[in-house]
Amino acid sequence: MFIQELHEYGYNTYYKVLNAKDYGIPQNRERVYLIIILKEYDNGKFVFPEGFDNGKRLKDMLEDEVDEKFYVNTPKARELIEQPGRGGRGSIDNHQWDLVQTKQ
Questions:
Q1: Would you list the domain boundaries of the chain?
Q2: Which of 5, 13, 58, 62 is surrounded by the most beta carbons within 10 Å?
Protein backbone atom coordinates (compact mmCIF):
# COMPACT_ATOMS: atom_id res chain seq x y z
CA MET A 1 0.00 0.00 0.00
CA PHE A 2 2.88 2.37 0.82
CA ILE A 3 4.48 1.90 -2.59
CA GLN A 4 1.12 2.25 -4.37
CA GLU A 5 0.46 5.51 -2.54
CA LEU A 6 3.89 6.87 -3.51
CA HIS A 7 3.17 5.88 -7.11
CA GLU A 8 -0.10 7.84 -6.97
CA TYR A 9 1.83 10.88 -5.67
CA GLY A 10 4.16 10.74 -8.67
CA TYR A 11 7.09 8.67 -7.42
CA ASN A 12 8.77 5.52 -8.62
CA THR A 13 9.94 3.27 -5.81
CA TYR A 14 12.73 0.73 -5.93
CA TYR A 15 13.23 -1.58 -2.97
CA LYS A 16 15.45 -4.49 -2.08
CA VAL A 17 16.63 -6.41 0.97
CA LEU A 18 20.37 -5.88 1.28
CA ASN A 19 22.80 -7.41 3.74
CA ALA A 20 25.55 -5.20 5.18
CA LYS A 21 28.03 -8.11 4.93
CA ASP A 22 27.74 -7.92 1.14
CA TYR A 23 28.84 -4.27 1.08
CA GLY A 24 32.07 -4.20 3.06
CA ILE A 25 30.57 -4.10 6.57
CA PRO A 26 31.69 -6.99 8.79
CA GLN A 27 28.18 -7.64 10.11
CA ASN A 28 25.40 -9.98 9.00
CA ARG A 29 22.55 -7.43 8.99
CA GLU A 30 19.69 -7.46 6.51
CA ARG A 31 17.66 -4.30 5.93
CA VAL A 32 15.09 -3.16 3.40
CA TYR A 33 16.35 -0.20 1.38
CA LEU A 34 14.01 2.04 -0.56
CA ILE A 35 14.99 4.43 -3.30
CA ILE A 36 12.19 6.85 -4.09
CA ILE A 37 12.52 9.03 -7.19
CA LEU A 38 10.11 11.62 -8.51
CA LYS A 39 8.82 10.21 -11.82
CA GLU A 40 9.72 13.31 -13.81
CA TYR A 41 13.40 12.82 -12.85
CA ASP A 42 13.52 9.03 -13.08
CA ASN A 43 14.91 7.50 -16.23
CA GLY A 44 13.84 4.02 -15.11
CA LYS A 45 17.41 2.72 -15.10
CA PHE A 46 18.10 2.60 -11.35
CA VAL A 47 19.69 -0.64 -10.17
CA PHE A 48 21.01 -1.45 -6.74
CA PRO A 49 24.79 -1.89 -6.62
CA GLU A 50 26.19 -5.40 -6.73
CA GLY A 51 27.55 -6.71 -3.45
CA PHE A 52 31.22 -7.49 -2.93
CA ASP A 53 33.42 -9.31 -0.47
CA ASN A 54 36.29 -7.21 0.82
CA GLY A 55 37.51 -10.04 3.05
CA LYS A 56 36.80 -8.24 6.34
CA ARG A 57 35.10 -10.24 9.03
CA LEU A 58 33.85 -9.21 12.47
CA LYS A 59 36.57 -11.29 14.13
CA ASP A 60 39.15 -9.12 12.35
CA MET A 61 37.72 -6.01 14.03
CA LEU A 62 37.37 -7.34 17.59
CA GLU A 63 40.05 -6.91 20.24
CA ASP A 64 41.70 -10.02 21.67
CA GLU A 65 41.32 -8.77 25.24
CA VAL A 66 38.52 -6.53 26.52
CA ASP A 67 38.65 -4.62 29.80
CA GLU A 68 36.23 -5.93 32.45
CA LYS A 69 34.55 -2.49 32.66
CA PHE A 70 32.91 -3.13 29.27
CA TYR A 71 31.02 -6.21 30.46
CA VAL A 72 27.47 -5.97 31.82
CA ASN A 73 27.23 -7.64 35.21
CA THR A 74 24.22 -9.70 36.25
CA PRO A 75 22.60 -7.04 38.50
CA LYS A 76 22.91 -4.41 35.75
CA ALA A 77 21.46 -6.82 33.15
CA ARG A 78 18.56 -7.61 35.48
CA GLU A 79 17.91 -3.88 35.95
CA LEU A 80 17.80 -3.33 32.18
CA ILE A 81 15.37 -6.20 31.70
CA GLU A 82 13.07 -5.41 34.62
CA GLN A 83 12.95 -1.62 34.18
CA PRO A 84 13.06 -0.74 30.48
CA GLY A 85 13.98 2.86 29.87
CA ARG A 86 16.11 3.32 32.98
CA GLY A 87 19.27 1.76 31.70
CA GLY A 88 21.50 4.32 30.07
CA ARG A 89 20.51 4.65 26.42
CA GLY A 90 16.80 5.12 26.75
CA SER A 91 13.92 2.76 26.32
CA ILE A 92 14.28 -0.81 25.24
CA ASP A 93 11.80 -1.39 22.44
CA ASN A 94 11.42 -3.24 19.14
CA HIS A 95 13.45 -0.57 17.36
CA GLN A 96 16.58 -1.43 19.29
CA TRP A 97 16.46 -5.21 19.02
CA ASP A 98 16.74 -7.44 15.98
CA LEU A 99 13.92 -9.97 15.65
CA VAL A 100 15.11 -13.56 15.75
CA GLN A 101 12.98 -16.51 14.74
CA THR A 102 13.13 -19.35 17.24
CA LYS A 103 11.78 -22.89 17.16
CA GLN A 104 8.80 -23.51 19.40
A1: 2-88
A2: 13
